[in-house]
């Protein structure tokens, strides 16, 4: 999937991979790639300003942590981030259901079909 | 062997990671601390990406070049980083204006109350104060308006931005209102300096003038950086 298509969903992707626990920037990148089976293409450099923005909005909290001789900035979800992730999941479910109903009308749930 | 070359006199190949960080760093402007933090994170991320490749058997220099290629070019990434730096600088300027604008209002109150104090009973003293009062009153009113804009900007770029898009022209608006407040503070400093030289209450007014001058330094510097950030492309 191309970078432009992924960009609109980047916030939700980042929040989702941080749900199990804190990660540093490169671990966030590999988590997105691993979970998507390598299908999602994104410039890895776009992750860092996105993480910074989510922190500014109070959805993430970050701090420097030492790992051996290296220092890495680790991010974790805040309570507001958890709520935002739940909202993103609901919105995505509704979106994919609606699009699926149009693209595959035969498999659409009966409740969504208009009465004739 | 020279510090920057090998025995054959050829320049040593630049470290791809450091070259990339330097190229990105050179295109960005904004708060020094945040920019340094961002560049440190980029360096760490590229180092991690290189280490992951070398662990898979790739030669280190090739691994570093691959990590940089996957990261994206400075031209591709700069607007995203600059957007965050511009918002951070906007918030810095807005905060500076909101915190220092009350000084101007206090200065106006100082001159106003000095007018009615025991040191101001001589004939003509009230007339002498009319101009400084007017100058500082106009400056204080402008600063109060800018402070309100600053508070609105802090809200619009903070948690409110979870639901509402941040206006694209907000950084420029805050930058120019900060510039106006900086000019108002310079005028107020001058006015307080002149007034203190003419009054018996000079220590208080001189102290207020010094504080206003310091506020001018903070606000004008932040507004200048904010104007520069607001002119740069951001996404």
UniProtKB/TrEMBL annotation, chain A:
Could you tell me which SUPFAM superfamilies the record lists for this protein? Winged helix' DNA-binding domain
Read off the Gene3D superfamilies from this record.
Answer: Winged helix-like DNA-binding domain superfamily/Winged helix DNA-binding domain
User: What is any Pfam family matched here?
Assistant: PadR
Q: Where is the Transcription regulator PadR N-terminal domain?
A: 14-86
Taxonomy, superkingdom = Bacteria
- Which PANTHER family does this UniProt record tie to the protein? PADR-FAMILY TRANSCRIPTIONAL REGULATOR, TRANSCRIPTIONAL REGULATOR RV3488
Return the protein name.
Helix-turn-helix transcriptional regulator
Source organism of this protein record = Streptomyces iconiensis
What lineage does the source organism belong to?
Bacteria, Bacillati, Actinomycetota, Actinomycetes, Kitasatosporales
Automatic annotation (TrEMBL), chain B:
Residues annotated as signal peptide: none
**What keyword terms does UniProt attach to this protein?**
Membrane, Transmembrane, Transmembrane helix
Stretches assigned to coiled coil: none
Transmembrane residue ranges: 93-113, 133-161, 173-196, 202-223
Q: Which domain of life is it from?
A: Bacteria
Q: What is this protein called?
A: Permease prefix domain 1-containing protein
List the top taxonomic levels of the source. Answer: Bacteria, Bacillati, Actinomycetota, Actinomycetes, Kitasatosporales
């Amino acid at each position: 999937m191309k970078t432009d298509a992924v960009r609109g969903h980047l916030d939700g992707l980042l929040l989702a991979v941080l749900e199990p626990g804190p990660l540093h920037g490169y671990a966030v990148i590999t988590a997105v790639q691993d979970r998507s089976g390598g299908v999602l293409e994104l410039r890895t450099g776009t992750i860092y300003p996105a993480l910074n923005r989510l922190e500014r909005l109070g959805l993430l909290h970050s701090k420097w942590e030492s790992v051996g001789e290296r220092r890495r900035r680790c991010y974790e979800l805040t309570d507001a981030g958890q709520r935002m992730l739940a909202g993103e999941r609901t919105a995505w479910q509704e979106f994919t259901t609606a699009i699926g109903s149009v693209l595959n009308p035969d498999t659409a749930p009966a409740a969504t079909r208009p009465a004739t | 062997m020279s510090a920057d070359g090998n025995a054959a006199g050829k320049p040593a190949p630049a470290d791809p990671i450091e070259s990339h960080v330097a190229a990105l760093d050179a295109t960005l402007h904004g708060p020094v601390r945040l920019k340094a933090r961002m560049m440190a994170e980029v360096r760490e991320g590229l180092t991690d990406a290189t280490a992951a490749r070398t662990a898979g058997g790739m030669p280190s220099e090739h691994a570093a070049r691959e990590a940089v290629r996957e990261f994206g070019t400075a031209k591709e990434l700069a607007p995203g980083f600059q957007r965050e730096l511009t918002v951070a600088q906007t918030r810095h300027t807005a905060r500076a204006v909101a915190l220092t604008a009350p000084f101007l209002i206090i200065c106006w109150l100082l001159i106003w109350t000095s007018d009615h104090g025991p040191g101001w009973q001589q004939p003509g003293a009230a007339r002498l104060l009319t101009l400084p009062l007017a100058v500082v009153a106009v400056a204080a009113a402008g600063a109060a308006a800018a402070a309100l804009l600053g508070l609105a900007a802090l809200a619009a770029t903070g948690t409110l931005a979870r639901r509402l898009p941040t206006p694209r022209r907000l950084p420029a608006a805050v930058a120019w209102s900060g510039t106006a407040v900086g000019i108002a503070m310079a005028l107020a400093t001058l006015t307080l300096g002149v007034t203190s030289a003419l009054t018996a209450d000079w220590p208080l007014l001189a102290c207020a003038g010094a504080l206003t001058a310091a506020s001018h330094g903070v606000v004008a510097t932040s507004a200048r950086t904010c104007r520069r950030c607001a002119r740069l492309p951001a996404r």
